[in-house]
Amino acid sequence: MRAGAGRRAPARAFVVVLALVSSCGAAPVSPDAPVPRADPAWGVVDSTCAPDRLAARVPGVDVAVVEAHWDRLEPTPGVTDAGYAAALRETVGRCAAAGVRVVLGSGLQYPPDWVRALPGALVLDQAGRSPTTGAVDTVFSAAVAAAADDHLRRLVGAVGVEDLVGVRVGTSTAGELGHPGPEASGAAFDSWWAFGDAPQHGIGLAPGQVPAPLPDWIPGQRTWQGRAVTPDDARAWFAWYSGALVRAVAGRAAALRSAGYGGPVHVPAAGRGVLPRDLDAAVAVVLDTAVRDGALRRGLDYVGDLGTLAATVPGAVVDVTGLDDATAVRARRLDPPQDRCTPGDAEALVSGDAALDDWPNQRVTVAAAARAGLPTAGENPGPPGPTTGGDPDSDSEADQVRYAVDYARGCGLSAFLLAFEDDLYTGRSGITPEDYRAAIGR
Fold first, then answer.
1. Structural domains in the chain plus CATH codes
2. Which uninterrupted H or E stretch holds 135?
3. CA distance 207 to 42
4. φ, ψ for residue 136, nearest 5 deg
5. Signal peptide location in the record (predicted)?
6. For a Cys-Cys bond, which of 32, 168, 292, 350 suits 266, CB 3.0-4.6 Å?
7. Cβ atoms of residues 302 and 366 within 8 Å
8. What's this model's pTM, rounded to 2 decimal places?
9. Is residue 235's pLDDT more than 50?
10. 77: left (phi > 0), else alpha (psi -120 to 50), else beta?
């Protein structure tokens, strides 16, 4: 779209793309005989909408994720920083004026210091530990949830809705869906983050949430209040624990709607979640176990919960945050390779087949979203390192550009967002706009 074109038209166009592009499994995918389908929308993550970058952008790359910061917008309770609000609106406006559609990062993962002093703000595990990541309880605490909702209304008021084609909402310090990960406690895989007064006893509990079905029971304990804990009890407890995340997102989405925003709500989803077979094994031992990548403790049950997300958050979009992560690299090396989405993935996901263990995170998450009827967007991990989950199998960012674009097409994603804009224009990761142009064929 030409610079200076009207801003409302691209927003509607992007919503149509999200509605019409199907998820993985809707059509055959083969590297030898690709099936014609609409390309994803192309974009970048963490955009500054700087004039020089907009002028140099690759043709067809017309979506930008602009990240807001709660702590900068409202450094003092109830007081909007007018300078920051104006700068954020100007940033979004520059992109929109250039024909670039904006997905706004809500910034909930950056709470101001004063939020940490609110009732129930402290996230607690079963040992009374708090996350070392500085997470606050936006899931269960009524006071924190109310502050988060007020932030979202304040954010929409500052930026306006006419230039937005998406708003990202998560629950973790990474801005993704999930309770704190195992790294947050300093003791890998042993923390369950739902042991404050609000989740356990309903004291100061956020609207829409419900207290724990077995108050004060700790996963792995074989008895509760003098009786044996059954696998059904454990399954119900985990459904409550994982479902609380979706209920929290639904609460934040309702706040956005009340502020006048009616567009897509993007929910960033990391990893693969717990496979049904692994969850069955976990509940059989009353959750006295762990699964790879900490999905159980994070409460990530994409197969079980994305259907609820679809039912409770109109316009939800699942953002796959690790296209071409290390799990995809390992799956690509298998014989036969297991990295690509294929027809029937959504059905195979609940089959219990051991072959699912070889699927990469992206294939599992896209299939789970397809089962729920949700559209998907995605982004590559970014430069391999501790903050992006990098390990010895990770692709360089230059290779991520090529492979992740291919996966976005093959899995029928509605949008691909390159992480990160700075990498394109500063050379810090060895990629250039020409690399992105070559990958998408523009």
1. 8-440 (3.20.20.80)
2. none
3. 37
4. -115, 160
5. 1-26
6. 168
7. no
8. 0.91
9. yes
10. beta
